Amino acid sequence: MMESVSGSAPVAAKDFSDRGSRRVREPLERDERPKIVPFDPEPQREKLRGWIAVGLVVLFALAIAASFLSFWWLPDKTDDLKDFLPLVLTPLTSVVSAVVGFYYGAQTRRGD
C-alpha cells in the first residue's frame, strides 16, 4: 500500500507488527534500576595531590643526588657549584616543604 503526504513523494507503508525472533527487553524492575550517585571529585583530587607531592620529593632527591655527584665528578668547579647550588636548592626546598606540609595537613584534618 502506498501512502502519500501532501506535497511529497509516495512512501511505502511498513509493517511493524511482526518483530520476528528479536527479543524485546522487559522494563527494569524497581530494584534493578541504576542508582544515581552524585559526582565526588575528592578521590581524584587526593590522587593528584599525592602524585604532585611524590613528584616534587623525587625532583628534590634528584637535585640533591646531582649536587653530590657534581662535586665528586667536577672537583675543579667546586667554587662555582657552591655559588650555584643554593640558588637551586633553596627555592626547591621551600616548595617541597610547602607541598608536603599541605598534603599531610589535609590528610590529618580529614582524619586519614
Task: Itemize the secondary structure elements and their pairings.
Blueprint lengths: L1 E2 L7 E2 L29 H32 L4 H33 L2
Antiparallel strand pairs: 1-2
Helix pairs in contact: 1-2
Features:
two-stranded antiparallel ribbon, mainly alpha, single chain, 112 residues
What's this entry about, in short?
The protein has 112 residues and is mainly α. Helices cover 58% and strands 4% of the residues.
Plain-language structure description:
This protein is mainly α. It has a domain at 41-112. The chain is built from two helices and two strands. A two-stranded antiparallel sheet has the order 1-2. The mean pLDDT is 79.
Integer average pLDDT: 79
Residues in helices, as a percent range: 55-70%
Using only CA atoms, what is the Rg? 34 Å
Strand order, main sheet: write it out. 1-2
* Spans of at least 5 consecutive residues with low confidence: none
- E-strand count: 2
Largest sheet: 2 strands, antiparallel
Number of helical runs? 2
Structural class computed from helices and strand pairing: mainly alpha
- Gross morphology: elongated
Beta fraction of the residues?
Answer: under 5%
State the end-to-end distance: 72 Å
Which H/E pattern describes the elements?
EEHH
